[in-house]
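Exam revision sheet. Question 4 asks you to relate a sequence to its structure. Input first:
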Amino acid sequence: MNRGIYNREVIQSHTRNNNYRDLNISSAIKYRTTIDSQQPLKKNDVGFNAFRIKINNWELNESIHKFNPQYLNNSISVLRQDESRSKSYTLISDITRRRIQRTSELENYEIEGKIGKGAYAVVKSGVQRNTGRRVAIKVYNKNELKDLKRKACIDREISIQKSLRHPNIVKLHEVINTDTELFLVMELVKGQPLDYYINSKVEGKLNELDAMELFTQIAEGISYCHDNNVIHRDIKMANVLIDEEHNVKIIDFGFSVRSADNHKLKVRCGTPSYMAPEVLMRKEYYGKAADVWSLGVLLFVMLTGRFPYPELDETDLLLSVCRNEVVFPYSMSEEIKNLISKMLYKNPQNRVLAKEIYREAVDITKNMQSKSYDTYSYKDRFKEMYI
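Answer key, structure tokens:
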């Protein structure tokens, strides 16, 4: 029998199966212990003779590992009854406790089929069992996330989405972290991406009232992000969802970052057709101004069905952006042309702020609605797609 403070102890125990002899106490027992390796466990414990540990004021740093064919996890909860004192001791590691908690959290969801796929994650639909709430679950395979920069990016995405609460931004409900996978439980949007919605139109573009009613919501969501110093950095049609009630939800904050007004960013990311000139040229850039450029490209595409600059390779795209001015359709209203022009200034310091874009978009939309632009409401037109 030994007393004292142990860093590591391997105890030979008597077992019914000689393949499972060693008990590895891998962590420091920080306080005095009494160890009796010959004391048998009761038959209703784990089914074989082993050791007994009686601890006064005990604490384990990690876990006590026991290799039992019935319990293959690295850490298990062991309950022993001290008959002489009629007192129970439960030894359970922090690792085990977290693992049980994570498993319990994950079992609260019924995961269904795949509804989307990104570069590093798969998005599946699911149902929360205790509430019946339908959710979208973004699943990252940790084996594919060995790059430290990518891991940091995902951590940043989670941190940012947890902090954002706005009706036009998809909500992050919960994060479940297991040994092999990372689950982001998010709001499920019943609808479709903006590009699908536009392609469903006969002309492959939206009329001005439809476009402005949607764009106003997009601008409001991005304005909220910028007010909280969050830069999206990948604004595009595929990252805007429209639900059955014609409400907008901005998604995919995988490239997002926090940045103050006077701080320049260096990392070039996003989709080239939506990138601001300074980003295409690989210069340091102001994140909010780059987002505003992307908003201008987005509105132009919504109204015309094409990009303001030819979709060529990146070199030709950069030359086109730097040398040419945007050519607007003759039929586009002047107030919308002016709004887009303010967002597509080549000098980022001259671009309008997101909150000013939102205010101007609201005014333009209200003006159009008051002119009896179309007696057939946009909600009725949109709902026809689901009949």
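Marking note for examiners. Residues 191-386 form a domain with the Transferase(Phosphotransferase); domain 1 fold (CATH 1.10.510.10).
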